[in-house]
Design brief:
Elements: E1 15-21, H1 27-36, E2 40-42, H2 50-59, E3 64-68, H3 80-89, E4 93-100, H4 103-113, H5 127-141, H6 143-147, E5 150-153, H7 159-171, E6 178-185, E7 196-199, H8 220-227, H9 230-252, E8 257-264, H10 270-282, E9 288-292, H11 293-296
Parallel strand pairs: 1-3, 1-4, 2-3, 4-5, 6-8, 6-9, 7-8
Length: 299
């Protein structure tokens, strides 16, 4: 008896990265980074064509596909999440990266580029207010997709930083939860992509020691100074204990990434030391990424 023909489906070696987010937050930069990393990239694809594209490119031997989807396809977005689930069920590795930024940063970018927002035809009393209304409307339309994605806050990122972070995300192992430790300066705002935020400004500050001021938390003299402060060790141990207690719950919740943000005044000494130390402590347990928002901006 001849077996019935079966329809071939993609195997786990095929990967789809969905790039989405708020207009002006850097989707083009992210897509170019993925193209440089070896992905076949398609911009502004209507969501209803995603399945067909995946299967066509799979038959042609494309194993890594990146697709940018934005609010211009708002009418089709409700069907996108179930489609991503279906593709995952067929053996495709699917991940979604959502780029976000503060309204202030977005208004500045649109003003500098003089490009209209896709939803800027909504009525308002002024051009600025019309833009703000469009951004808030877009946040509402994309809220469900944001909840299912790994969020990157691009408010204070240079294009080079964003390209680096995107490459790190797609390069991380997907078989389990990835821990992302990020340092930042409170004076520049809390990262929008943080799942947890810890404030270490109450700890002794190396900035006030002349010989340590130009150094960073990566440098041995700063690390030695902080390591000698009992309260620094106590806070590190407490953060580590909290994460170890709750990491199994986050893994059970099928999270792909958990971003732990550590903030101090300038994002140079204490928060950097904490990120370096915590990443080292967890590296043997889970895939771990390190980000230093303020330090990376200097490169």
């Amino acid at each position: 008896m001849t077996p019935a023909p079966t329809t071939a489906v993609p195997t786990l070696r095929h990967e789809v990265v969905l790039v989405t987010g708020i207009s002006g937050s850097g989707k083009s930069v992210a897509l170019h980074a993925l193209e440089d990393a070896g992905f076949f990239c398609v911009d502004n694809l209507p969501p209803e064509l995603l399945r067909e594209l995946v299967h066509v490119e799979t038959r042609q031997g494309v194993q890594r596909l990146a697709v940018a989807v934005d609010v211009r396809s708002a009418g089709s977005l409700p069907a996108l999440l179930p489609l991503l689930d279906e593709l995952s069920g067929e053996g495709v590795q699917v991940r979604s990266i959502f780029l976000n930024a503060t309204t202030t940063a977005l208004v500045k970018r649109f003003s500098e580029t003089r490009r209209p927002h896709p939803l800027s035809n909504v009525g308002a009393s002024s051009d600025r207010q019309r833009l703000i209304d469009a951004i808030e409307q877009e946040r509402s339309l994309l809220a469900a997709l944001r909840e299912r994605s790994t969020v990157l806050d691009t408010s204070d990122l240079r294009p080079a930083q964003l390209r680096q972070w995107v490459r790190e995300l797609v390069g991380a192992e997907r078989s389990q939860l990835t821990l992302v430790f990020q340092s930042f300066a409170f004076k520049h705002g809390v990262p929008l992509d943080a799942d947890m935020v810890y404030d270490v400004r109450v700890l002794p500050n190396p900035f006030y020691l002349r010989e340590l001021r130009p150094l960073t938390g990566r440098d041995a003299p700063v690390a030695d100074y902080l390591r000698a402060q009992p309260e620094v060790g106590e806070m590190l141990d407490q953060i580590e204990a909290f994460l170890r207690r709750w990491l199994p719950a986050f893994e059970h919740d099928q999270r792909s990434y958990l971003t732990v943000a550590i903030g101090c005044t300038g994002g140079q000494h204490r928060s950097v030391y904490f990120v370096e130390t915590l990443a080292e402590r967890f590296a043997s347990q889970l895939p771990t990424l390190k980000r230093h928002r303020e330090l990376d901006a200097r490169v």
